[in-house]
Amino acid sequence: MTVVRVALPVPLRQHFDYLIASDQPCQIGCRVLVPFGNRQLVGIIWQLAPDDGFDASKLKTVLQLLDTTPVLPPLLCQLLSFAAEYYHYPLGEVLISALPALLREGRNLTDYQPKAYRLTTAGLQLNSTALKRSAKQSALWQALQSHQLTESVLLQQHSRATLKQLLDKQLAEELIVPPVPFTPPLKPATGLKLTSNQALAVTAVDQACGRFERLLLEGVTGSGKTEVYLQSIAGLLNQQQQVLVIVPEIGLTPQTLARFQARFDVPVLCWHSALSDSERLHCWLQASTGAAAIIIGTRSALFLPFYRLGLIIIDEEHDQSLKQQDGFRYHARDLAIKRAALQHCPILLGSATPSLESLHNALNKRFIHLPLPDRAAGQALPVFELVDLKQQVLQFGLASQTLAQIKKQLGLGLQVMLFLNRRGFAPALSCQECGWLTECHRCSAFTTYHKQSRQLVCHHCGASKAVPRQCGNCGSTQLKPLGQGTEQLEENLQQLFADVPITRLDRDSTRRKGALHQALDDIHQSGARLIVGTQMLAKGHHFPNVSLVVIVDVDGALYSSDFRAPEQLAQLLTQVAGRAGRGSSGGKVLLQTHYPEHVLLQDIINNGYASFARSALKEREQTRLPPFQHLALFRAEAHQSELCQQWLQQLADCSRQISGLQLLGPIPAPLERRAGKYRWQLQLYSPARPQLHTALDNLLQQLHSWPLSRKVKWQLDVDPTDLT
Ligand SMILES: Nc1ncnc2c1ncn2[C@@H]1O[C@H](COP(=O)(O)OP(=O)(O)OP(=O)(O)O)[C@@H](O)[C@H]1O
Ligand SMILES: [Zn+2]
To answer: Could you give the angle at the alpha carbon of 172 between the alpha carbons of 169 and 176, nearest 5°?
Structure first.
């Protein structure tokens, strides 16, 4: 017997030792099934024959070694162990979360590997009349005479039942098909003639191939960033190198997939949460064997075990969805940069509205900066126009000049997009007699009225209930929607423009499988003339017939306490606006607001995002906010507010003992109560990363022994992007 040290998916910051027979072919990164308490868990072998700290007589024995080759190859083990340290999250949970569900459950990998079938010696020697009573078996036997058939080819002509009969009679046998990396495209891909800035960018990526380099493509909306991605990839595919493209939304994978598939004659695969478990495992296998040339996926694609990864592209690198917001709270962009470093390959970050972090790195030359200041086909950038809502009579939240402009564009046969970042019918129902508002009883928030489903839904905790008939305070039946969401805007537009087809694009309207695809089709085929939607509309879509974008209401977002709010609003406005005028017809953006003089709005419309971002960086420098200091956030949640405060206060007292830390808090979170629990936070700032990490290690060690730590639910978020 020998000892292996195993990382297990449990919330403990330690590993566990087990015995295993000495002749078992264990390697680091292989899965094992082990007894743990009264359960059985799948874990990852993390160390072979450790020579410290165990008492062999007390150890339990591994129940099963699940792999003979590591499911987590050494490079991924390195990446994940870095991630566990950086985000201060238990290694076992990090390792297991990087695997597809079927592997996490302990399934046998070989069951999912592609199979082929051939005749056994008995099958080859069989007399041709032996199977004459079964025409189907005879046909399959004939088909296997000359050569083996892969499972997929075989099942095109023959049934699984027939195959099983030949296998049962031992006339045929199964073998696992040895993996073959994809073959380089036979015909060269023809791309567009690049603009000079695009050509410079492609050359820079080409030159970076084969070594670690970080490049930021700062290209205005419609500047042809995707064309740069496509042309940067061509050379790598010829060298049989794989490419990973990370996109922020599942919604963007189909269109990106289509563009890549149309360009290259190689296997391009998708990776996202809407795939079934076996589809995900298939993609994982294709990445690991080198059979997939390009994988387009959402953030967790970062953990796929590529066979020969040559380039990572992060599209919309500023997007908030790249950060995981629960459990293991990693940032896919930052970990992808680490992966590229381990992999010795370049990473290309692209955005029209780069994050201040990436822009800072580009301006101080840590990243290669590749600007694309103009739209690719020479179209002008959309022109912003502020619509002052003060002292205006609004019709359904729209000013008369807004309505006139919508009519004009529709008259010209063009499409109009209306952006409102609030789904549902109305943000609340209100009593006309006493002013009572529908509130979530578990959160400090109102409940959104959804008219179609006749429900009041809390968008924070997900709780929903039927719409009440009466006011909860005075009993009046006069309940009216307060404010407007996308569902209502759609209904109102239908009244105003009776014959004009409308498509709504938000999380509610696209929940049904295939609905998003249908909506995008409607827009692209120009079936839909008015498009209503939330921020889903803002991301990466190319709708050439949209000539006018109306931003219905931004006022709620203008005054927020979160220091990232201005950056996020500027990104959102620029991205939404960027959907206008991408075809030949020019574009305009109407921004409705009660605060037309607001500094942020003025800056965005007069100077654009690039200028806004540079001055926002200066402000962050003066106020010593990220990226000029590093931030870690402790959150505490409990049914009693005082427990959170006390626990964070204890943490703050310990933090004060550590030099070089600046504290903000404990303070109640902006959303003070969610799902019945009070929420508090403590922000820790430090000018140097190593110092911050040492401090966090120190604090984590101490807090585990505090009795209060068991009474609150706490989390640590390193480089938080969401302070709500
Ligand atoms: N060199 C070029 N010459 C002509 N047209 C081009 C060129 N490069 C790109 N285009 C076209 O410009 C349009 C916009 O390109 P693309 O969608 O790649 O922009 P983008 O920068 O990714 O935009 P966004 O950030 O807004 O999503 C596309 O129709 C694309 O085919
Ligand atoms: Zn709630």
So the answer is: 135
Q: For residue 585, is pLDDT > 80?
A: no
To test ligand 1's pocket by mutation, which of 221, 227, 375 has the most ligand atoms within 8 angstroms of CB?
Answer: 227
Pairing status of strand 294-297 against strand 242-246: parallel
Q: Which ligand approaches the C-alpha of residue 672 most closely?
A: 2
Q: What is residue 562's predicted lDDT score, i.e. its pLDDT?
A: 84
Per-residue pLDDT band at 54 (split at 50, 70, 90): low
Beta 479-482 vs 464-466: how paired, if at all?
A: unpaired
- Tokens linked to 501: 């087809």
Q: What CATH number was assigned to the domain covering residues 383-423+485-619?
A: 3.40.50.300
Q: Per residue in 285-300, pLDDT tens? A: 999 999 999 999 999 9
474 is in an annotated binding site: yes
| 639 Cα: distance to centroid of ligand 2 (angstroms) | 14
Whose CA is closest to 345, among 27, 586, 706, 75? 75
To 5 degrees, how large is the angle CA 221–CA 585–CA 253?
40
Whole-number percent of the chain with pLDDT over 70: 99
Strands (E), 542-647: 546-551, 588-593, 630-638
Q: For residue 78, give both structure tokens.
A: 């390195």
Alpha-carbon gap, residue 539 to 596, rounded angstroms? 25
Q: Which residue's CA is the nearest one to ligand 1's atom 28?
A: 224
Cα distance between residue 567 and residue 356, in whole Å: 8
Confidence (pLDDT) at 686: 94
Does the annotation place 458 within a ligand binding site?
A: yes
Q: Which of 197, 226, 417 to probe ligand 1 with, by most ligand atoms within 8 A of CB?
A: 226
How high is the mean pLDDT of the chain? 90
Residue type for position 293: A
CATH code 3.40.50.300 region(s) in the chain: 196-372, 383-423+485-619
Q: What are the pLDDT digits (tens) for 436-481?
A: 999 998 998 899 999 988 999 999 888 999 999 999 889 899 899 9
Instruction: Give the bridge partners for 213, in sequence order.
Output: 346
Ligand 1 pocket (Cβ < 6 Å) reads 192-195, 198, 219, 221-227, 352, 376-377, 540, 542, 578
CATH of 2-74+81-110, one of 3.90.550.10, 3.40.1440.60, 3.50.50.60, 3.30.750.24: 3.40.1440.60
Q: Could you list which residues have their CB under 5 Å from ion ligand 2? A: 440, 442-443, 458, 460-461, 463
Provide CATH 3.40.1440.60 ranges for the chain.
2-74+81-110
What confidence tier does 368 reach under pLDDT thresholds 50, 70, 90? Answer: very high
Decide if 106 contacts 33 (C-beta within 8 A).
yes
pLDDT band for position 252 (cuts 50, 70, 90): low
Q: Which of 216, 217, 221, 223 to mutate to test the pocket of ligand 1 (most atoms within 8 A of CB)?
A: 223
How far, in Å, is the centroid of ligand 2 from the Cα of 676? 8
Architecture of domain 630-718: 2-Layer Sandwich (3.30)
* Domain made up of 196-372: CATH architecture: 3-Layer(aba) Sandwich (3.40)
CB neighbour list of residue 35: distance below 8 Å, 6 or more residues apart:
60, 63
The tens digit of pLDDT for each residue in 148-170 reads 888 888 888 999 999 999 999 99
Question: Is 434 annotated as contributing to ligand binding?
Answer: yes
The residues near 267 (Cβ < 8 Å, ≥ 6 apart) are 182, 286, 291, 292, 293, 294
What's the complex ipTM? Answer: 0.97
CATH 3.30.70.600-classified regions of the chain: 630-718
Closest ligand 1 atom number to CA of residue 194: 1
